[in-house]
Structure formats: structure tokens, C-alpha cells
User: Fold this.
Amino acid sequence: MSTAALQAPRRARLLPVLMLFAALASAIEITTRLVNYVQEEFGDEAAERLENWQRLNTLAQNAPVKRQLKLVNTFFNRVKFVSDIHHWGEEDYWATPIELLATNGGDCEDFSIAKYLTLKALGVPDDQLRIVYVKALELNQAHMVLAWYEQPDSDPLILDNLINDIKPASQRSDLEPVYSFNGDGLWLTKSGGDERIGEPEKLKRWQALNERLTESLNL
Assistant:
């Protein structure tokens, strides 16, 4: 049996986890029931990763924003990079933070999404954050990062799983932005600046991810 076939059932086993997960509206809330479930399905280390995520929220809650950026970036960059086809049995799957941490694996989209949702839970305004789809020029492949804007016209800081250092976008000449989004909008990058082209719901995988998160509200 292929590695992809072995990995694919993981998502199905995680559905009960998502139903136990409190949505990341204002804080990260990890229940004992959730930790116990993850421990039974994925082992002690997986449960510990969730508990450490909760500790990160407590530690960073009142920290300055740039300190929060560093803590969150470093935390998620410890997770193993694994391609979607090997990890989920799909060409392109956008995982929730619970899925990322429970399985200790994900790709650039999963890292960026987890960082975005965690920083939102820590109180960073949505209009200061954008998930950015880029072309990684040195790798000659598509990539995704998270950008933080201190002001709307600021040179954003880039949180990237390729490097641990958080640098301004102007210092990341290896990245060529294509489009960006957050919970409020979707923008296309053009030479004259970003052009809003609609709502994030246009992105089917983003919509599917949010539907899985919203399921937890129906408990």
C-alpha cells in the first residue's frame, strides 16, 4: 500500500477532533476531551503539541505584536514539512491547526494558515494579516507565507516556514507575490499595488477549511 493511501485515513479520524475544537474567534481553547482523543489516536507527543499550543497562547497573550509574531513563527516552524500527497493523499489540502499539530506534518499552506489563525486568536487585527500566495524564485515553485502589516501601506513582515528569521518583504527578493487573502478579502498583486478582487470565499479550499472549523460551533 502506498504512503498516500496510509495517510489518507488520518483526515477521517480527525473529524471528531474538529467537532471538539473551539473555533479560534478570540482564544485558543484546548479541552481535556480533545487532548485525550488526540493522545489515543496519535500518541503522547501529539497531545503534548496541542498542550504546548495552549501554553503558547497563554505566554504570548499580552506580549507586543512583534514578539507574538516571533513566538508563533518559531512554534509552527518546528512541525515537519510533508507534501499533501504524501500526508493526506491529495494534491492540495489545506489543514486546520489541529490537523497540522496532531499529525506533526503539513506544507506551506498549513503553516501559514496555522500562524494566521493563532495570531488572530491572540488579538492581532485581521486587517494587519494576509496569507500570501507567492512564487519562490530560488525553488521555482509555488509557496505560501503570512504577512503582517503594521500599517496598511507598511512594508510587511514575512512569516515563512523556509526560514525562521522574520524579514520585511523588501528583503525577500526570493519571493514574488501573486495574490493574498484574509478573512475579509482577496487581493491580486499587480505592479501598481494590490487590487481587491472579491471575498475569500472564492477560494474553495479556504471555504472548506472554515466549514470544518465552524462545525465546532454546533456542539
User: Anything to note?
Assistant: The first helix runs from residue 3 to 7. The chain has a mean pLDDT of 86.
